[in-house]
Design brief:
4-stranded antiparallel beta sheet; 29% helix
């Protein structure tokens, strides 16, 4: 069973969010921690997915509806956790009265976000040496 919660970037969840993101972004994708931990986490909402008694995925949303930092540990991918993490943040955006949410999708994940109702709305760009494209979803 998977449980998804929305939390602030503080104890007791701070260490879990950092662990997941460091594993995926720093360890797997070789993204510098300075880029990942960009100083915007404190004011963001974070979703966390727990499976088999441990936290295995996370994402964040800034106050303007910018969703990012979606990370699921490799052994838990393909189980729908990413969709649950994003959906939890979209629900929070709707509750907050936001009119849209948006994100920078890594090029390989565009189809994933399209299935969640996002549409490409910009030209491709490179961030942290990874090809991205801007996407948005009207609420």
């Amino acid at each position: 069973m998977v449980k998804t919660i929305v939390v602030a970037f503080e104890d007791p969840h701070l260490a879990e969010i950092k662990r997941i993101r460091k594993t995926v972004f720093t360890g797997e994708q070789h993204i510098d921690e300075v880029i990942d931990f960009d100083g915007q986490d404190q004011g963001a909402l974070h979703s966390l997915a727990a499976c088999e008694g441990r936290f295995v995925g996370t994402a964040r949303m800034l106050s303007d509806g910018h969703i990012g930092r979606l990370a699921v540990l490799a052994e838990y991918r393909g189980r729908g956790l990413g969709a649950q993490l994003v959906s939890a943040l979209v629900s929070e955006a709707e509750r907050a009265g936001l009119r849209r949410v948006y994100l920078g999708s890594q090029a390989h994940a565009v189809g994933f976000y399209e299935r969640l109702g996002f549409s490409v709305c910009g030209e491709p760009y490179t961030e942290a040496s990874i090809r991205h494209v801007q996407m948005e979803r009207t609420l």
